[in-house]
Design goal:
- It is a single chain.
- The protein has about 375 residues and is of the alpha/beta class.
- It folds into two domains: about 5-180 and about 360-380, Rossmann fold, CATH 3.40.50; about 200-360, Glycogen Phosphorylase B (Rossmann fold), CATH 3.40.50.
- The chain contains 14 helices and 13 strands.
- It has helices at about 20-30, 50-55, 75-90, 100-110, 130-145, 155-165, 215-230, 245-255, 270-275, 290-295, 310-315, 330-340, 340-360, 360-380, and strands at about 10-15, 40-45, 60-65, 95, 115-120, 150-155, 175, 200-205, 235-240, 260-265, 280, 300-305, 320-325.
- Strands 3-2-1-4-5-6-7 form a seven-stranded parallel β-sheet, with helices on both faces. The chain has a six-stranded parallel β-sheet with strand order 10-9-8-11-12-13, sandwiched between helices.
- Strand 12, helix 11 (about 310-315) and strand 13 (about 320-325) form a beta-alpha-beta unit.
- It is globular and about 65 Å long.
- The two termini are about 25 Å apart.
């Protein structure tokens, strides 16, 4: 057995204590890397399902009050708190996630004397839907933060190329590691009869946070238009967030609560995926969607927005369809087509699983990060 002295001590810095895509990417690493070789700790805002999960896994958690998405003067105190944790913990590697904690965490860790600092970009904080001054401001912050880390990891190839072209991160500092997912275990369809759906109904489902980023209100409007015209199609949207109540009101106002389900956040996502015929996600921006990967691992065809990240997961006409943002008619057309072409829909689902095995396998993701940790650690000895 390896001595505990030889373990590499790694601190992950998260923003919110949720169990969404960013946090689950980290948990995939923590739970699959060799515990004889790596010892993990996590920083995040207090409370929440992530904290409960870390307790269950017996992973050391440092809570940092004041960690919120918005920029404020409190961020200085957050920076000092993270700096102190880094100094006290004497970590070998600090690995930051998300834009806010990526900026504060990289600076704190480097000033605390951490030898290896890594940041995973789960989608840049700037996007075309922001005012230009805001985009420029966030680009500047990313350029500054890049000085304080050894490697930046892009979860898709598009953002890596963008970072190089815009001189945000030097080419030698940034690489792409796709998020990985294990193959879904067989699950039975436990919900179809429970919710009164007919065996011939086609269920289009999604798992996402009800936020502006996920474009959920536009998706609900499309769902309403489809089910009003076609009684063989149903929608299920798993998740919660700041726009959940608005979405609920929209569905109730049309008296479609039996056709468009919004059951809230659920922990048994695999059971719900087994209930779906097609997975849909109409996000405005993404890094590399873990929810799409989960759906692909369950053998589902995908209809998704044609944006960075999504267009590296979905091959148009192969394992689903990509739709331009704002092209409602195209989205509806693809939903109606795939709902009536059973053989093609089944083939697309098989192709989703094939892509997971070829490009997005969990073991490939784990091995890539393991090699990165070890190589950077040894380079600083």
């Amino acid at each position: 057995m390896k001595s505990i002295i030889n373990k590499k001590r790694i601190l992950h810095i998260q923003l919110l204590p949720l169990l969404s895509g960013v946090q689950n990417v980290m948990l995939n690493l923590i739970t699959n890397l060799d515990s004889d070789e790596f010892e993990f700790s996590v920083i995040s805002a207090p409370d929440g399902p992530l904290v409960n999960k870390l307790k269950e896994l017996k992973i050391k958690h440092y809570q940092v009050p004041g960690l919120v998405r918005k920029i404020s003067l409190k961020d200085l105190f957050v920076l000092i708190r993270i700096y102190k944790i880094c100094r006290m913990g004497k970590f070998d590697i600090v690995h930051t996630h998300s834009s806010k904690t990526g900026f504060i965490g990289r600076i704190s860790a480097r000033f605390a004397g951490i030898k290896v600092v890594i940041h995973t970009i789960h989608g840049f904080p700037f996007n075309p839907f922001q005012p230009l001054p805001k985009q420029i401001f966030f680009e500047l912050l990313e350029k500054i933060a890049a000085f304080f880390c050894d490697r930046a990891i892009s979860v898709n190839k598009t953002e890596r190329q963008l970072a190089i072209e815009k001189h945000i991160i030097p080419e030698k500092k940034i690489l792409t590691i796709y998020n990985g997912i294990g193959e879904a275990s067989p699950h039975s369809e436990i919900f179809r009869e429970e919710f009164g759906f007919h065996k011939d109904d086609k269920i289009f489902g999604s798992v996402c946070r009800f936020s502006k980023q996920k474009n959920i209100i536009s998706m609900i409007k499309i769902a309403i238009e489809i089910v009003e015209a076609n009684d063989k199609i149903k929608f299920v949207f798993i998740g919660d967030g700041e726009l959940w109540e608005d979405a609920k009101r929209m569905v109730r106002a049309k008296n479609l609560s039996a056709e468009i389900l919004l059951p809230g956040w659920k922990s048994n996502v695999a059971d719900w995926l087994a209930f779906f015929d097609v997975f849909v996600l109409y996000s405005l921006w993404e890094g590399l969607s873990l929810s799409i990967l989960e759906a692909m691992s369950a053998g589902l065809p995908i209809i998704a927005s044609d944006i960075k990240g999504n267009n590296e997961l979905v091959k148009n006409g192969y394992n689903g369809f990509l739709v331009k943002i704002g092209n409602k008619d195209s989205f509806i057309k693809n939903v109606l087509w795939i709902s009536t072409h059973d053989r093609e829909r089944e083939e697309m689902g098989k192709n989703s699983l094939k892509l997971v095995r070829e490009k997005f396998a969990l073991n490939r993701f784990i091995e890539s990060y393991k090699n990165l940790y070890i190589n950077l650690y040894q380079s600083k000895l």
